[in-house]
């Protein structure tokens, strides 16, 4: 952080915010404030330039057409790529995750260039759409509890050699490749198919983003009772009797 407030950028709320992904911004903002951090939140619409000085960028999911528009504008703008070059922390969800890869298949059935911030490539799955609750074990290097989320995507995402799987599914499809992987990450950029919103169901991921942005190993504990109740409820719904 170059000044005293944590700058959180919500990328394209007008195009990329399905299934309550806006909640991710609220959770990061709230958990930072609970630690006494001042937060400068920037909601950047698709007709505005992406600031390059943010600390944390959040990119949500979207339907196929908004996804193409968002990719076009992000490529033309260049700000998110410059922010990534500056070491910004980025969390992307579903359509946002696909856009951060090398390429994806757009609503016209054409291969569309992504930003190449994650070493992944997405295609359109031939089989059934991946829809439903997901439980997954997160890469142990990240020391996070079990991942819970909701997925709804046709895209199938293949990881290249420099992307690590974010998690391995116990329930659900994740990247949809059949190899059990879900999402991808490198040191500063994260992608996941999880909605929920993912940070409301997994607040420790929000804390991870804040720790990476601040370059600290730990944050003071906060009251997690509400989050834990939500997690228990969703995990029970996913694993309980049909
Ligand atoms: N359009 C993309 C897909 O179906 C992403 C969908 C989403 O973000 N929910 O794969």
TrEMBL record:
Residue positions of the active site: 94 (nucleophile), 195
Hydrolase keyword on record: yes
Pfam families: GATase_3 (PF07685)
Keywords for the protein's UniProt record, in alphabetical order: Cell shape, Cell wall biogenesis/degradation, Glutamine amidotransferase, Hydrolase, Ligase, Peptidoglycan synthesis, Transferase
Positions contributing to substrate binding: 129
Keyword Transferase: yes
Reaction(s) catalysed by this chain's protein: beta-D-GlcNAc-(1->4)-Mur2Ac(oyl-L-Ala-gamma-D-Glu-L-Lys-D-Ala-D-Ala)-di-trans,octa-cis-undecaprenyl diphosphate + L-glutamine + ATP + H2O = beta-D-GlcNAc-(1->4)-Mur2Ac(oyl-L-Ala-D-isoglutaminyl-L-Lys-D-Ala-D-Ala)-di-trans,octa-cis-undecaprenyl diphosphate + L-glutamate + ADP + phosphate + H(+); L-glutamine + H2O = L-glutamate + NH4(+)
Family annotation (Gene3D superfamilies): 3.40.50.880
InterPro entries in the cross-refs: Class_I_gatase-like (IPR029062), CobQ_GATase1 (IPR033949), GATase_3 (IPR011698), Lipid_II_synth_GatD (IPR043702)
Positions of the CobB/CobQ-like glutamine amidotransferase domain: 7-202
Biological process annotations from GO: cell wall organization; cobalamin biosynthetic process; peptidoglycan biosynthetic process; regulation of cell shape
Enzyme Commission identifier(s): 6.3.5.13, 3.5.1.2
Pathway the protein contributes to: Cell wall biogenesis; peptidoglycan biosynthesis
Summary of subunit composition and partner proteins: Forms a heterodimer with MurT.
The protein's role, per its UniProt record: The lipid II isoglutaminyl synthase complex catalyzes the formation of alpha-D-isoglutamine in the cell wall lipid II stem peptide. The GatD subunit catalyzes the hydrolysis of glutamine to glutamate and ammonia. The resulting ammonia molecule is channeled to the active site of MurT.
Family: Belongs to the CobB/CobQ family. GatD subfamily.
Protein name according to UniProt: Lipid II isoglutaminyl synthase (glutamine-hydrolyzing) subunit GatD
Lineage of origin: Bacteria, Bacillati, Actinomycetota, Actinomycetes, Kitasatosporales
Gene: gatD
């Amino acid at each position: 952080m170059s000044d005293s407030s944590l700058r959180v950028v919500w990328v394209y709320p007008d195009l990329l915010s399905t299934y309550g992904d806006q909640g991710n911004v609220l959770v990061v903002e709230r958990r930072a404030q609970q630690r006494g951090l001042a937060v400068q939140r920037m909601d950047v619409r698709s007709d505005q330039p992406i600031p390059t000085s943010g600390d944390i960028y959040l990119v949500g999911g979207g339907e196929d057409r908004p996804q193409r528009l968002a990719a076009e504008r992000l490529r033309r703008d260049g700000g998110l790529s410059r922010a990534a070059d500056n070491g910004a922390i980025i969390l992307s969800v579903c359509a946002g995750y696909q856009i951060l890869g090398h390429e994806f298949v757009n609503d016209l059935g054409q291969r569309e260039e992504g930003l190449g911030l994650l070493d992944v490539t997405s295609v359109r799955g031939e089989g059934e759409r991946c829809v439903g609750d997901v439980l997954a074990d997160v890469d142990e290097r990240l020391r996070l509890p079990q991942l819970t989320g909701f997925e709804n995507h046709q895209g199938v995402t293949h990881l290249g050699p420099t992307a690590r799987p974010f998690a391995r599914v116990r329930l659900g499809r994740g990247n949809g490749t059949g190899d059990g992987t879900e999402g991808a990450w490198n040191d500063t950029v994260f992608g996941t198919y999880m909605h929920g919103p993912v940070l409301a169901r997994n607040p420790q991921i929000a804390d991870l983003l804040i720790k990476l942005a601040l370059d600290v190993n730990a944050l003071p504990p906060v009251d997690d009772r509400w989050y834990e109740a939500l997690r228990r409820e969703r995990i029970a719904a996913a694993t309980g009797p049909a």
